[in-house]
Amino acid sequence: MVTVNVVVLAGTVAADPVERRMPSGDEVTELRLSVPEAGKRLLPLPVAAWHRDVGKRALKGIAKGDDVLVHGQLVRRFYRSGAGARSLTEVVAMGIKKLEVPADA
Fold first, then answer.
1. CA count, 13 A, side-chain hemisphere, 79
2. Most CB contacts within 10 A, which of 2, 9, 24, 67?
3. What does the pLDDT look like over 84-104, one tens digit per residue?
4. Structure pTM?
5. Phi, psi (rounded to 5 degrees) for 96
């Protein structure tokens, strides 16, 4: 069986990224990316950038309103909250690049 789990998205950062430290000590930056859905409405997608994979330097200077290119994998996480067992589908980024718009564009 052949399987492929590769996600490549170009979109706009919808809110300022949030850095968190997990109980394990790992650091992650979470952001929400707005991507046009086949020419229709904007689709808000959660993105998790683990610092061990992406690195803090790649995330430096990324803020709400920036256009970025993200590549990674689609992952479904399960966790417990006050409301019980929950799940979240998100993009786990392996790389993030801020897209610069030329001044003459």
1. 7
2. 9
3. 899 989 999 999 999 987 766
4. 0.83
5. -135, 130
Instruction: In whole angstroms, give the CA distance from residue 23 to residue 6.
Output: 28
Domains of the chain: 7-98 (2.40.50.140)
Cβ neighbours around 61 below 10 Å, total: 8
Whether pLDDT at 13 is above 80: yes
Smallest Cα–Cα separation from 86: which of 26, 28, 46?
46
Whether 103 and 90 have beta carbons less than 8 Å apart is answered as: no
| C-alpha dihedral, 31 to 96 to 100 to 62, nearest 10° | 40
